[in-house]
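Per reviewer request, we include the raw input and output of the structure prediction for the construct analysed in the revised manuscript.
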Amino acid sequence: QIARRYRQSGLEVQAADFVITNGSTQAIDVIFKTFVDEGDTVFVSTPTEPRVLQVMAMYQPEIVSLPMKGDVPDMGAVARLFAEKQPRIIYCMPDFGGPEGGRWDLETRRAMGELVKGTDCLLIEHDLYGELSADGQRLPFVKEFAGDNSVLAGSFSQVIGPGLRCGWICAGTPEDARNLTGTKQKTDSHMNGYMQRVLWQYL
């Protein structure tokens, strides 16, 4: 059902691309546990939710704030910083992220995706609020431009109910999906099966 909803928004994904997690906070944790080593450089768009930064800090990366121009990254400055730092991860929330609730325009999404595409950098697109736009329209995902160099993390907590604790990761490649699944299985067995069934019926 999650894959179907994304396909309706124009993103070509399949059910096999997804790993179900206990909320999106665990999704971020699983991604970092899988891909980040101590000392890796991680770019973070600002402002960022404190709980996300707390998860990141457990893996002891070098966290660098993205240069911003208002609500969106200053892509010229980001490109220069990217060349200098060669980050392992870029974390962003393009739709209504942080306390200010800004939204990236199409040009910024395309530029960010093209920046990481074909590199060793993995872009994490945290998709919590994208379905809550006032006009009901979704802009293209950064993932559409980044290709295999990106993962989506999302949750139903913001769009249906916070107590559900059902999140997901949409991997960029089958190998990434297998690695993320292995990490999740070492963390806990699975997300509540009964609640998954309830959500499946609701959706």
